[in-house]
Amino acid sequence: MRRPSWRNRRTKQGGTALYYSADWQVLEERDGGGIARVSMVWSPVYIDAMIARDRDSDSNGSLEERLYVAHDANFNASSIINTSGSAVERFILDPYGSPTFLDGSWSAIGSSAYAWTHLHQGGRHSSANNLYHFRHRDLNPTLGRWITNDPIGFAAGDENFLRVAGNQPVDNVDPLGLMLCPEGKRLAHVQYCLIEHSEYRGTGCQITQRPGPAPEPDGCSLPDWLNWGSQSVGRRIFLDCCNKHDECYSTCSRGNRQSNCDTAFLQCMLKRCQLEKRWQGFWFSLSGCYEIALAFYDAVRLFGDSRYVAAKNQACVCCCSDFGCRL
Fold it and tell me: Considering only CA atoms, which of 173, 190, 137, 145 is closest in space to residue 319?
């Protein structure tokens, strides 16, 4: 069982102080007098899989109530179990987490008799506003949407900034509130491994080459608006640069950024223009070649985001140990 250091993160929720681990797991809840009222232990299998909770149910200062939690395959809480091994409460959740509470005998009740808060995929549920908290955002289970835009925008690989888990919450999880993580092998979308800012980085994530042959470069494929006139000349002259650019997009390392690949692409094309000038002499327009190179560069810089993400997802896998993935 895992009980990380917690004293570096604390937030207030009304009169309750929540103490978090470095992975933003709630470890303790304390009242205004600093007395611990709830303590939680988390599993190393998945970042939001709780093992047990101790609670001061009678407000006498001791955490006398121990409950264990059972999960389904997508880490939704399904029941809580006492130390005698009996299920004392059960939960039925719709795909986005709207809860129905049942007692141990499967009879419906209005709310949790044990003040249980961690339900849908291990997220913390607030009965006051019916929202789940997943680190960077809150989920509204009634709407099936996040209530704020994705902090990392298009880097999440979804043009809809409010969509939850690609509209497939039964198959995917999103513990950071940033982008979906496919449930099957606990492999995160490659963007988890590419995020540079440590606040948004999936903890314990590594990026590695996907098994099998690497994707083949496809030369200078251009948007329709660039396929005119002298651009066909550029496609011939810059073929090698285009292929190297494709290979750069498919390289699996955290430091391999799109901007680095695009800059190297431009430098390659400018050098190629200079070589063509030496070979062809007077009849070759160096300035015209530079203009085509800049047009190619502008195309990948302005419209290459989706190609970069697609290439990374095709060539690489992102394995996050905190999500239970092992390479």
Answer: 190
